[in-house]
Specification:
By secondary structure, the protein is an alpha/beta fold. It has 2 domains: about 90 residues, Enolase-like, domain 1 (2-Layer Sandwich), CATH 3.30.390; about 210 residues, Alpha-Beta Barrel (TIM Barrel), CATH 3.20.20.120. Helix content is about 35%, strand content about 20%. It contains 12 helices and 12 strands. The strands form 3 sheets. A 7-stranded parallel beta sheet has the order 5-6-7-8-9-10-11. Helix 5 links the parallel strand 7 and strand 8. Helix 9 packs across helix 10. It is globular and about 55 Å long. The relative contact order is 0.18.
């Protein structure tokens, strides 16, 4: 059921969360929050996404706020630290914000940087975490196959847990997986699942060893669980740089998976200087409980009027697309 637009607007709040470190090219993360019969939900497709893609995120938000979710199988979710494309000297201070996390996801292939920057950053993470820490890298599709193969060889000495979305296309992922299989470093697919017209294509092509899934881009928890089941691959639940409200939806998804073979990417609250609630990891894990934003925080973090109006107009357009699809 799609609630009428007035029901969404009645509690809608647009917030702007400041980041401690620039991430995905932004210094402030904007999101629209609203409350339904089952609690608060988040609608926060990145600003560059068109309305068709953003509407899927609205489906997820409405489902989380208006529908009962699958029964959780666990009440805490182990999470990784997320290391943006920062200088190697800044790594120890950043990792210190992730209480008890023994896994780190390191961003690589940043535009304007070179492989030597990635090597220095990953080396600094390994030195900070010691030999027992787990390190995964995420290129966000920033390499071609030859570049990715070269990078994996250059970074293999740091004992990589897996490499996430090293290339853009499914055929490229399949070719890279074939080339590096002898090294025993798994390939994970993220954008090839959440931004694909067919999220199962990567599994059918044998192009990945595991999936990185996100609740909002996949249209909600139930749809994401169906994709994982149909793919037959291990899954890592990750954040889309969500507020504490969106992270709660990700945690609910992780809590519903039959198995969690890897730490999840749901510790990104530590990247923010302020949030609508405290969702930072404690002891290397986060709670699966729903989050109610703090009223004072909603006021403190309220987006400027022009940005609020932009988000409300986007919500209205995406809601119209959903209403038209079921009429």
């Amino acid at each position: 059921m799609t609630p009428v637009l007035a029901d969404l607007l009645a509690t809608a709040r647009v917030v702007a969360l400041p980041l401690r470190t620039r991430f995905r090219g932004v210094d402030v993360r904007e999101a629209l929050l609203f409350e339904g019969p089952h609690g608060w939900a988040e609608f926060s497709p990145f600003t560059e996404y068109d309305d068709d893609e953003a509407a899927t995120w609205l489906v997820a938000a409405i489902d989380f706020a208006w529908s009962a979710q699958p029964a959780p199988l666990r009440d805490r979710i182990p999470v990784n630290a997320t290391v943006p494309a920062i200088a190697d000297r800044d790594v120890p201070a950043l990792l210190a914000r992730y209480d008890g996390c023994r896994t780190a996801k390191v961003k690589v292939a940043e535009r304007g940087q070179v492989l030597a920057d990635d090597v220095a950053r990953v080396r600094a993470v390994r030195e900070a975490m010691g030999p027992e820490g787990r390190i995964r890298i995420d290129a966000n599709g920033g390499w071609n196959v030859d570049e990715a193969e070269h990078a994996v060889h250059a970074l293999a000495e740091f004992d990589l847990e897996y490499v996430e979305q090293p290339c853009t296309s499914v055929p490229e992922l399949a070719e890279l997986r074939r080339r590096v299989k002898h090294m025993g470093i798994p390939v994970a697919a993220d954008e090839s699942v959440r931004k694909a017209a067919d999220p199962l294509a990567v599994a059918r092509a044998g192009a990945a060893d595991l999936l990185v899934i996100k609740a909002q881009p996949l249209g909600g928890i139930r749809h994401a669980l169906t994709i994982v089941a149909d793919a037959g691959l291990p899954a890592v639940v990750s954040s889309a740089l969500d507020t504490a409200v969106g992270l709660a939806q990700g945690a609910a998804l992780a809590a519903s998976l039959p198995a969690l073979d890897y730490d999840c990417g749901l510790g990104t609250a530590s990247l923010f200087a302020d949030d609508v609630a405290d969702a930072r990891p404690v002891g290397g894990s986060v709670s699966t409980a729903r989050v109610t934003p703090d009223a004072a925080a909603l006021d403190r973090l309220a987006a400027p009027a022009e940005r609020r109006d932009w988000w409300l107009a986007r919500l209205e357009r995406c809601h119209a697309l959903l209403a038209a699809s079921v009429s």
